C-alpha cells in the first residue's frame, strides 16, 4: 500500500470520530503525493508523515469561571502544539460554541503549512474553547478569558508557543489574556500577538489580511509582466477583509467593480469608493442598499451569484466559504479572468476549483492570499522581542514584501514541479518541502 494511503487509513482507524482532522490531512497528503512518491521508502523509514500528521502535543483542559449571576460555569479548552521544526509554535485561539478537539486539531495541522508557506520562522498550533462572547457581559468575557489564560499560560512562551487572535477572540479577549498572563508570569514578551497597540500591538493588525490580498494579486500580475494599474476587480463581502482589500486594490490603481453583504451586492462601474464602503459598513453598520443609494450610477442586486458574472481581470472572493460554485467558475473562465485571489477560506467548491484549474484561471490558494494576518502577527512578535514599535509604513513595506515572496514561491514551485495551473498543489508542496527539510536536518526527534 502507498505510504500516504497507509497514513490516511491509520488516522481513519484511530480517530474515527475526528472527521475534520481526517479531511484536512487527506486533502493535504493527496496534494503532496507526487513529492512523497518519488522517495517513498526514505519518508517511510524516517516516519516523516506520522511525525507531521500526529501533533507534538495536545492539551485539553477544563475552563472554570463564574457568570454574573454567581453561577459556576465550565467550558472545554484546548491548545494543540503541532510542529515546531521551523520555529516556536504559533496559531490562533478560537472562542466559538462548536469548538472541539477535532476542529482544533484540523486547524492546527493547517497552521503548520500556512506559516511555512509564508516563510515565517514559526511552527503551527491552534487553540480555543467552546465559549462564545455572544449574550455575555464584558465582565463575563473577562472572567472567562482569565480562566482560559490560567490554564494555557503554562504552555506559552515567546520562543515556545505564541498565541494569536481568531474568531471570537479579538482585541478585547487578547487584552484580557495578556493582562492575566502577565500577572501570572511577570513577563511582557511576545507570547501573545494581536494585542492592543498601547501594550505591544502592531500597526495594521486589522488591515493586514485585506491589504495582503491585492499585494498578492499585484505580485501574480508581475510574473506575467503586467502591473496592477488599471486592472478590473470583482470583490465579494463588505467585512473586515473585503473593505481593506478594496481600499488597497484602489490604492494600487485597480478598479473594484463590486462589493456585497449577505443580502445583496452592488455593481459600481466607476469603481467602489472605499471611504463610502467603510462609512456604510463599519461606521453605520448599514446594508449595501445604503451604499447604492448614496452612489450615483451604482446598481444594487439581491443575492450574490451575480457578482461573478461581471467581467474582471481579478476576482477577490472575501465573503464566505464555497461562494464560487461550478456555474460561477464557468463564467469566470469564459470571461478570461486572469486570477482568483481569495480572502475567504475555501471560497470555491471542489468542482469549481477543478474547473478553474482545467480552464486556465489561476486559482491561488487562500492560505497564500490571506496570509497577511499571520505575517503581521509575526512582525508583532519581532517588534516585541526587540522592544521596538515600527511605523505603519515599515510594517506595510514588510507585509508587501512577504506577500510578493509567497507568490513567487508558489509560482516557482508550480513551474519547477510541472504542475501546470495547479497553484494549490504548488503551495502545499512548497510548504511541505520547507517543513520536511527542517525536520530532516534536525534528525529523528
Ligand atoms: P466578516 O464577517 O467581517 O465579513 C464577511 C462579509 O461577507 C460580510 O459583509 C457579510 O455580510 C458578507 N457575506 C457573508 N456571506 C455572504 C454571502 N454568501 N454572499 C455575499 N456576501 C456575504 O468576515 P471577515 O471579513 O473577517 O472574513 C471574511 C472571510 O475571510 C471569512 O471566510 C474568513 O474566514 C476569512 N478570513 C478572515 C481573516 C481575518 O483576518 N478576518 C483571516 C483569514 C481568513 P453581512 O454584513 O450581511 O454579514
UniProtKB/TrEMBL annotation:
Organism, scientific name:
[Clostridium] aminophilum
Instruction: Show the SMART domains listed in the entry.
Output: ELFV_dehydrog
Sequence positions that bind substrate: 90, 114
Marked site, Important for catalysis, at 166
Pfam family for this entry, one: ELFV_dehydrog
Q: Which GO terms describe its cellular component?
A: cytosol
Q: Which UniProt keywords apply?
A: NAD, Nucleotide-binding, Oxidoreductase
Asked if Transmembrane helix is a keyword of the record, the answer is no
List the active-site residues.
Answer: 126
Subunit comment for this entry?
A: Homohexamer.
| The Glutamate/phenylalanine/leucine/valine/L-tryptophan dehydrogenase C-terminal domain, residue ranges | 202-443
> Which InterPro entries does the protein's record reference?
Aminoacid_DH-like_N_sf, Glu/Leu/Phe/Val/Trp_DH, Glu/Leu/Phe/Val/Trp_DH_C, Glu/Leu/Phe/Val/Trp_DH_dimer, Glu_DH, Glu_Leu_Phe_Val_DH, NAD(P)-bd_dom_sf
What Gene3D superfamilies does UniProt report for this protein, alphabetically? Answer: Glutamate Dehydrogenase, chain A, domain 3 (1.10.285.10), Leucine Dehydrogenase, chain A, domain 1 (3.40.50.10860), NAD(P)-binding Rossmann-like Domain (3.40.50.720)
Q: Name one GO biological process term.
A: glutamate biosynthetic process
* Gene Ontology MF terms: glutamate dehydrogenase (NADP+) activity; nucleotide binding
Give the protein's recorded name.
Glutamate dehydrogenase
Report if keyword Ribonucleoprotein is assigned.
no
Residues binding NAD(+): 209
- Give the similarity note: Belongs to the Glu/Leu/Phe/Val dehydrogenases family.
Amino acid at each position: 500500500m502507498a505510504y500516504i494511503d497507509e497514513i490516511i487509513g491509520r488516522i481513519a482507524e484511530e480517530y474515527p470520530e475526528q472527521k475534520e482532522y481526517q479531511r484536512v490531512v487527506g486533502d493535504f497528503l493527496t496534494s503532496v503525493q507526487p513529492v512523497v512518491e518519488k522517495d517513498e521508502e526514505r519518508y517511510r523509514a524516517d516516519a516523516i508523515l506520522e511525525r507531521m500528521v500526529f501533533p507534538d502535543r495536545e492539551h485539553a483542559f477544563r475552563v472554570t469561571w463564574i457568570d454574573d449571576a454567581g453561577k459556576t460555569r465550565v467550558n472545554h479548552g484546548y491548545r494543540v502544539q503541532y510542529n515546531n521544526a521551523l520555529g516556536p509554535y504559533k496559531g490562533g485561539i478560537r472562542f466559538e460554541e462548536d469548538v472541539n478537539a477535532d476542529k482544533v486539531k484540523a486547524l492546527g495541522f493547517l497552521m503548520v503549512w500556512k506559516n511555512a508557506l509564508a516563510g515565517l520562522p514559526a511552527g503551527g498550533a491552534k487553540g480555543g474553547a467552546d465559549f462564545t462572547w455572544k449574550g455575555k457581559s464584558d465582565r463575563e468575557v473577562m472572567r472567562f478569558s482569565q480562566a482560559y489564560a490560567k490554564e494555557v499560560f503554562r504552555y506559552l512562551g515567546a520562543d515556545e508557543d505564541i498565541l494569536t487572535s481568531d474568531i471570537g477572540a479579538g482585541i478585547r479577549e487578547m487584552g484580557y489574556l495578556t493582562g492575566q498572563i502577565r500577572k501570572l508570569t511577570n513577563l511582557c514578551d511576545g507570547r501573545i500577538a494581536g494585542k492592543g497597540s498601547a501594550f505591544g500591538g502592531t500597526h495594521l493588525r486589522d488591515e493586514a489580511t485585506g491589504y495582503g490580498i491585492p499585494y498578492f494579486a499585484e505580485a501574480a500580475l508581475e510574473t506575467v509582466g503586467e502591473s496592477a494599474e488599471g486592472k478590473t476587480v470583482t470583490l465579494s463581502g463588505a467585512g473586515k477583509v473585503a473593505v481593506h482589500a478594496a481600499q488597497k486594490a484602489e490604492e494600487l490603481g485597480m478598479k473594484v467593480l463590486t462589493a456585497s453583504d449577505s443580502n445583496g451586492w452592488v455593481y459600481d462601474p466607476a469603481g467602489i469608493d472605499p471611504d463610502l464602503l467603510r462609512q456604510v459598513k463599519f461606521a453605520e453598520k448599514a446594508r449595501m442598499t445604503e451604499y447604492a443609494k448614496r452612489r450615483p450610477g451604482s446598481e444594487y442586486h439581491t443575492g450574490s451569484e451575480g457578482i461573478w458574472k461581471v467581467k474582471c481581470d481579478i476576482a477577490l472572493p472575501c465573503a464566505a466559504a464555497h461562494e464560487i460554485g461550478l456555474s460561477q467558475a464557468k463564467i469566470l473562465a469564459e470571461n478570461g479572468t486572469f486570477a482568483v485571489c481569495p480572502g475567504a477560506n475555501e471560497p470555491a467548491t471542489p468542482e469549481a476549483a477543478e474547473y478553474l484549474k482545467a480552464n486556465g484561471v489561476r486559482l491561488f490558494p487562500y492560505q497564500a492570499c490571506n496570509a497577511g494576518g499571520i505575517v503581521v502577527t509575526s512582525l508583532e512578535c519581532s517588534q516585541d522581542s526587540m522592544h521596538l514599535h515600527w511605523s505603519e509604513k515599515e510594517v506595510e513595506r514588510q507585509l508587501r514584501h512577504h506577500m510578493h515572496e509567497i507568490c513567487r514561491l508558489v509560482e516557482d514551485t508550480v513551474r519547477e514541479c510541472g504542475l501546470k495551473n495547479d497553484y494549490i498543489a504548488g503551495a502545499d508542496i512548497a510548504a511541505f518541502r520547507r517543513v520536511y527539510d527542517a525536520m530532516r536536518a534536525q534528525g529523528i526527534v
